[in-house]
Amino acid sequence: MKPAFSVLFLTTLIGMGQGLLIALVAGQFYFVIGSGFEQDSGDFYAKGSAVALVLLGLGLIASFFHLSHPERGMRSIMRWRTSWLSREVLLLPACMGLAALYGLIHWFDITPVLITFGNQKNLDLSMAVGFLLAGASAFLFITTGMIYACIRFIKEWATPWTVVNYTLMGLSSGFAAAAIIAALENALLRDFLAGWAALFTLAAFAAKGFTLWRNKHLPAPFSMKSAIGVHHGHIRQLSQGFMGRSFNTMEFFTHVHPEILHWMTALMLVFGFAAPSALLLAGWADRYLPALIAALPIQYLGLLAERWLFFAQGRHVQNVYYQRAS
Amino acid sequence: MSRKQLALVIDLNICVGCHACVTSCKEWNTSGWAGPLSDTDPYGADPLGVFFNRVQTFEAGEFPHTETIHFPKSCLHCEDPPCVPVCPTGASFKREEDGIVLVDYDKCIGCKYCSWNCPYGVREFDTKQGVMKKCTLCADRIYDETLSEERRKPACVLACPAGARSFGDISNPTSEVSQAIRDNAGFQIMPEMGTQPANHYLPRRKTKLVIHDDELMRADNPLLKEGELPRPQLSDPFLDDVTSW
Predict the structure, then answer these.
(1) Among A105, A295, B191, B239, which residue's beta carbon has the most beta carbons within 10 A?
(2) What ipTM describes this predicted complex?
(3) Which of A210, A244, A222, A231 lies closest to A315 in space, CA to CA?
(4) Are B15 and B164 in contact (CB under 8 A)?
(5) Contact in structure between B189 and A228 (CB atoms under 8 Å)
(6) Domains defined for chain B, CATH in brackets
């Protein structure tokens, strides 16, 4: 498949935004259920939400560049019953709205207690909105992953691992972003967030590694026999019916030298996973701020490479009909 | 009886790969309801264009035992079209009344997601208009009552000089296309994808004349066993002259 830069930026940016939101809510919840009564300031959560909103907003803007008719974009919520794409389009603004609400509640410190439990722990408004926000963000991960995982004609994508990878990479970059904000704000959550960011990066590394191995051992994506219904063991294409280009020869192929794929894979593994997990661990264990801050931009480059490869290495079944130009 | 499902039946035994269906499709659809089918740099070095129908050529076997197969391919109007439910706007739809899969250009946002969900690669994006396009089964002419009844067929069917393409309702068991599928082992391409394509193909059929030795040499020739009858003597009576019997 041909990687579209709008989609690369969309999926990586909103993944980080969602991960950041989940990190904030998880951090707040960590203190709420903790033994003590300490809690980070509302400012920290509000600033975190603002950064997440910017990330989600940038992703949303990037997504418009993928459409030929962005002015009709609103129509794309119509088929949420059947289309994962439609569900994503619905959930992204919902997440943004909830993030704004969550940030405002913290900024203005509107925390009326909704429920008090037997152990003297309270569920206040900010935590309740936080749960909704984390749920929406988690579901947005599923919809984004399922957009690709539900295409059964691209075997590299049609696996639950697509959803797992999207989620883990989003959580990893989101927690890393949250850790930077916590460090800059001197928040108590800094170590919690940095530690989990390192863990999620390692988990994403493992999941990606498994997926690479899996995709290397996939059966042939198509069969010439069933494509043209001729029962012969040796079929080759003589002509695709035209000498120029067509949508089919452009959208479904990435014409790059195989060497570039190798370099991109190395870039992805080092920048996307190995280097940031080491830096995050250094930032967590030694509380070394430059390492913590450097991890995220390096990882983001790696994630862009990962997303580019995700597309470039997806082999669509229709390619069986475009084996040979002329 | 199941719902009406219009479809093409293409006989691979007849198709000679002349591309008349391709050009007539382009001509009809670029000038009509579904058009224009934009071309970029059509006479230049790097032409790019939208076509609803393409003919591809394959070769089975290795020289000298080869066979050339011309393979026309357009939207198969699947009975379970995977491209339809994934469309976020509902621009892509399957018509209830005749089973044709269509795109509403006014609702399409050009996200191309439907094309990813077609295993046959028959949806083509029009970069100039920014919408997805595909074979309409000439929905604008098959019901056109200003045309005489035998002309109410898709342009490709009318254009085929060899008569390799036929058009009709495959859910009606008495239709010409249904009979052609039944009688000639019509098949669907990529049935394992679970899309139930409505368009069918008829296979290559070879007529071989098998002559056994005993058809050239009579195995039951009585002369072989009994030998020739002895020639009658000149003195024997003739049948037509006078006989003793």
Answers:
(1) A295
(2) 0.92
(3) A222
(4) yes
(5) yes
(6) 6-202 (3.30.70.20)
- pLDDT, averaged per 10 consecutive residues of chain A (326 residues), comes to 95 97 96 82 94 97 94 93 96 97 94 85 91 97 97 96 98 97 93 96 97 94 90 93 91 92 96 96 90 96 97 94 79
Contact at CB, B59 and A244, closer than 8 angstroms: no
Kindly calculate the radius of gyration of chain B based on its CA atoms and give it in whole angstroms: 29
3-state secondary structure of A298: helix
DSSP, collapsed to helix, strand or coil, labels residue B92 as: strand
Q: How far apart are CA B204 and CA B181, in angstroms?
A: 13
Contact A213, A223 (CB under 8 A): no
Q: What is d(CA B3, CA B44) in angstroms, rounded to the nearest whole number?
A: 46
pLDDT tens digits for range B11-40: 999 999 999 999 999 999 999 887 799 999
Over its C-alpha atoms, chain A yields an Rg (Å, rounded) of: 22
Please name the residues between 205 and 234 in chain A that touch chain B, using a CB distance below 8 Å: 224, 226-230, 232, 234
Distance of CA A212 to the CA centre of its chain: 17
Query: Which of helix, strand or coil describes residue B50?
Result: coil
Q: B40 and A237 in contact (C-beta within 8 Å)?
A: no
Residue B94 clears pLDDT 90, i.e. is over it: yes
Q: Are A44 and A189 in contact (CB under 8 A)?
A: yes
Nearest chain A alpha carbon to B134: A247
Name every residue whose Cβ is closer than 8 Å to that of residue A30 and which is 6 or more positions away in sequence.
A189, A192
Measured distance CA(A300)–CA(A15) in Å, rounded: 11
Residues with Cβ < 8 Å from A184, sequence gap 6 or more? none
Residues 6+ apart with CB under 8 A from A145: A162, A163, A164, A165, A166, A167
Burial A41-70 (b: 16+ CB within 10 A, else e): ebebbbbbbbbbbebbbbbbebbeebbbbe
DSSP β-ladder status, A113-116 and B101-103: unpaired
SS (H, E, C) chain B: CCCCCEEEEEECCCCCCCCHHHHHHHHHHHCCCCCCCCEECCCCCCCEECCCEEEEEEEECCCCCCEEEEEEEECCCCCCCCCCCCCCCCCEEECCCCCCEEECCCCCCCCCHHHHCCCCCCCEEECCCCEEECCCCCCCCCCCCCCCHHHCCCHHHHHCCCCCEEEEECCCCCCHHHHHHHHCCCECCCHHHCCCCCCEEECCCCCCCCCCHHHHCCCCCHHHHHCCCCCCCCCCCCCCCCCCC
- Tokens 């296309």 appear where? B177
pLDDT at B245 over 60: no
Tell me whether residues A238 and B59 touch, CB distance under 8 A: yes
CA–CA dist A310, A165 (Å, integer): 11
Domain A5-224+238-321 has CATH 1.20.1630.10: yes
A positions 91-110 inside 8 Å of B (CB): none
Whether the CB-CB separation of A71 and B109 falls below 8 Å is answered with no
